[in-house]
Write a structure and sequence with these properties.
With 264 residues, this protein is an alpha/beta fold. It has 10 helices and 8 strands. It is globular and about 50 Å long.
């Protein structure tokens, strides 16, 4: 199995396909690189498509702590270094988008472009959903938190979206739970991306779905503040855009990448 070694004897599991300019895919919270299985195949035809499991997710290391946004930014930098890359395109969904924004602020010279999919942002509140799951972890344990997270996250994916629901449930069921057990959970340094993103000059594509009521407003706010961005809104699509509308998603990202680094 391919692992990239990063500091503190930690390992990030990754998969890649193709040759050309590297495009790194960052998955969402409690998910893993299985989210990007189709993208590894499709984008591997023109670029070097790479996806890795964040710490505590999938097959990567599961330390007791070190899961803050700043930590994830440093893990991405160390991953790029471990693969011997100078610069890369980054595509991040939800938590992966939060990491990408932090990376763009800290290491702009290492980015060719950034695609933010249903992204969150440091300092942007997402309501009580996360807080209630964290509370369940503290009071009732990890399995209680996992079950509450599944009820909250999977409720949107009805029988018509059974394939997506089953995939997400497998990823969440197999998630380590280490993030909820982290003693630093809720205590990491705070930052406010909406106050800082005006400094990001990296070409940025923002993708959001009309049914994603929590993160669609954020996409509009980011588009107004990012100096070199374009926003595309997907009709009748929710949070998991690449799984709900794969062909539209792939076409949009390909067209964006082609304007920067033409693939095969």
């Amino acid at each position: 199995m391919p692992y990239a070694r990063i500091p503190n004897e930690l390992k990030l599991y990754y998969e890649e396909n193709g040759k050309g300019e590297p495009v790194i895919f960052l998955h969402g919270f409690t998910l893993d690189i299985r989210q990007w299985e189709c993208e590894l195949e499709v984008f591997g035809r023109g670029w070097r498509a790479i996806a890795y499991d964040a710490l505590g997710h999938g097959k990567s290391s599961t330390p007791d702590t070190g899961y803050g946004r700043d930590d994830r930014v440093e893990h991405l930098r160390a991953f790029i270094d471990a693969l011997g890359l100078e610069r890369a395109h980054v595509v991040g969904l939800s938590m992966g988008g939060v990491t990408a924004i932090g990376f763009a602020l800290a290491y702009p010279e290492r980015l060719r472009s950034m695609t933010l999919v249903s992204t969150g942002a440091a300092g942007y509140g997402v309501g009580k959903k996360i807080q209630l799951v964290d509370q369940a972890a503290r009071e009732k344990g990890l399995e209680a938190a996992r079950e509450k997270w599944k009820r909250t996250t999977l409720s949107y994916y009805t029988s018509e979206k059974r394939r997506i629901r089953d995939l997400m449930q497998r990823m969440i069921d197999e998630h380590s739970g280490a993030i909820w057990a982290d003693p630093m959970r809720g205590k990491y340094p705070k930052s406010n991306d909406l106050q800082n993103v005006h400094r990001i000059e990296t070409p940025t594509l923002l993708l959001a779905g009309t049914l994603d009521r929590i993160f669609l407003p954020l996409a509009h706010k980011l588009d107004k503040r990012l100096p070199n961005s374009r926003l595309q809104v997907f009709e009748d699509v929710g949070h998991m855009i690449n799984l709900e509308a794969p062909e539209r998603f792939e076409r949009s990202v390909k067209q964006f990448l082609e304007t920067i680094a033409p693939g095969g």
